[in-house]
Amino acid sequence: MREIKFRGKTYENEWVYGSFIDAGSKKFIWNRYPIEVDPKTVGLFTDFYDAKKKPIYEGDLVISAIFKEGPVYLVAYSKYKGWIRKLYKIKNYEPAFTIADPSENYMVIGNIHDNPELYFNRLYKSKSHQR
Fold first, then answer.
1. Structural domain boundaries of the chain?
2. Strands, E assignment, the chain
3. Does residue 107 contact residue 68 with C-beta atoms inside 8 Å?
4. What is the mean pLDDT of residues 14-35?
5. pLDDT (tens digit, 9 = 90+) per residue, 27-61?
6. C-alpha distances in angstroms, 73 versus 1, 3, 33, 64?
7. Which of helix, strand or coil describes residue 21?
8. Which is deepest, 16, 61, 82, 119, by most CB within 10 Å?
9. Of 48, 37, 46, 45, residue with least CA distance to 10
10. Which CATH class is domain 45-126?
11. Contacts by 32-35 with C-beta closer than 8 Å and gap 24+?
């Protein structure tokens, strides 16, 4: 059965996980009690895990786990295509994870809220490959 959970960042800059509550102008994540979060940071769990078994959320940034470098993809949801991977300034999106290209082939390296520079730089080089 699919696990439906969300994450969001509080105004104190802490990530919280749980159920989402939309209370009009305020948004909350419920984890034993409601915690107000910045609505721009709320992301749904995709029901996928990366190569390190880390849950993948909407807004995460992923790269190839095989090469550990290369294009940085943003995980997003499309009303018509479901979960997608998208590259910065590229309009044709790809399905996020398929049988031919499963989520285990990817590694979460951050998210668009904490690490926007990774996405906007487009390419990621692992620290072991940098000189």
1. 1-41, 45-126
2. 6-9, 15-23, 26-30, 34-37, 43-49, 55-57, 60-64, 70-71, 73-78, 82-86, 94-95, 106-111, 123-124
3. yes
4. 97
5. 999 999 999 999 999 999 999 999 999 999 999 99
6. 27, 23, 33, 9
7. strand
8. 61
9. 37
10. mainly beta
11. 35/8, 35/10
